[in-house]
Amino acid sequence: MEISKKKFGVTKNGKQAYLYTLVNENGMEAVVTDFGAILVNLIVPDSKGVKKDLVLGYDSLAAYEENGCFFGATIGRNANRIGGASFTLDGIRYKLADNENGNNLHTDFNQGFHKVMWDAEPDEDANAVKFSYTSPDGENGFPGALHISVTYTLLADNGIQITYDGVSDKKTIINVTNHSYFNLGGHDAGSICDEKLTILASGFTEIIPGAIPTGKVIPVEGSVMDFRQARRIGDGIDQEWDQLLMVQGYDHNWALDTAFGTVEKIAQVEDEKAGRIMEVYSDLPGVQFYAGNCITPQEGKGGVHYDKRCALCLETQYFPNSVNIPEFRQPVFEAGQPYHTTTIYKFK
């Protein structure tokens, strides 16, 4: 399929950014940009052929240069939180940006992977765009020069596949994710509380204030965290329970029951009114379900008003703060050890 390319704007640093549009034979479209390797649009037809853009975002590059909610963003080197904004590898302590109440969230708000220019390689045969970036040794506090790529592939069966590959010249953390916000009724459809969610996980990582995991994986059985069977998101989201109150609703990591290293279905979202289903596939141990509790009121694409809980995120990942919790699977990679992971969002 032909991949179109057009100018998106010029960054504050004088770099020209571009939009790349992927289209499949079913009429599904994905628009990505080399600024931040961001997913800008994801246009999906419903059962009647009606197309809607299902991800929150902006019309301008300037807005993505701010992007306080990380709409569509590639997050790295480390997604989610690291307690105390620091970690130790081989006896060396590394200090990160203290950007969330003494902790580190999503690496760096202003200099993370979502705020840099990536090199783009369109591949029309694969209907894909590969974005590549070299993160210098010490960037944002992390050791090692990391060569990383993010490849967006639009699949024939209405899936958007995101493949990450990386290698560092020093032992380091690599834990990259995509922070797209989805609403199956469309980015302009309002609350996602009526959508039904399934997460194939028997436990979630208990948190303390600051949303830092304690190291305990708590069974979901008998709690509002149990999404092993499809359940309306709004049922229980405002329950008076410390695990929810600390983060104003759902913003937790689920410990998946699926096999690490094998791409399997991990979650599903269904919007009966819109007639759309999104399946999520991953080979990672965890997924962060974030119900958009802290989306700040703002203007998005097409002048649409975005607000609290108007979209949700399902961010595939290693568990938050894993590097400081030895019992968790580690996102630590030796020099020369390849990092490779795949996430797919598939629509029906």
Q: Topology, please?
A:
Blueprint: E1 4-10, E2 16-23, E3 29-33, E4 38-45, E5 51-53, H1 61-66, E6 74-75, E7 81-82, E8 86-89, E9 92-95, E10 104-105, E11 119-123, E12 128-135, E13 146-154, E14 159-168, E15 172-173, E16 177-178, E17 196-199, E18 201-208, E19 212-219, E20 231-232, H2 242-245, E21 251-256, E22 264-271, E23 276-282, E24 286-290, E25 298-299, E26 305-306, E27 313-317, E28 332-333, E29 339-347
Antiparallel strand pairs: 1-2, 2-3, 3-4, 4-5, 6-16, 7-10, 8-9, 11-12, 12-13, 13-14, 14-29, 15-28, 17-20, 17-22, 18-19, 18-21, 21-24, 22-23, 23-29, 24-27, 25-26
Protein described:
The structure is a single chain. The strands form 8 sheets. The protein has a 9-stranded antiparallel β-sheet with strand order 11-12-13-14-29-23-22-17-20, with no helix packed on it. The protein has a 5-stranded antiparallel β-sheet with strand order 1-2-3-4-5, with no helix packed on it. A 5-stranded antiparallel β-sheet has the order 19-18-21-24-27, with no helix packed on it. The protein is globular and about 55 Å long. It is built from 2 helices and 29 strands. The protein is an all-beta fold and 348 residues long. It starts with a strand and ends with a strand.
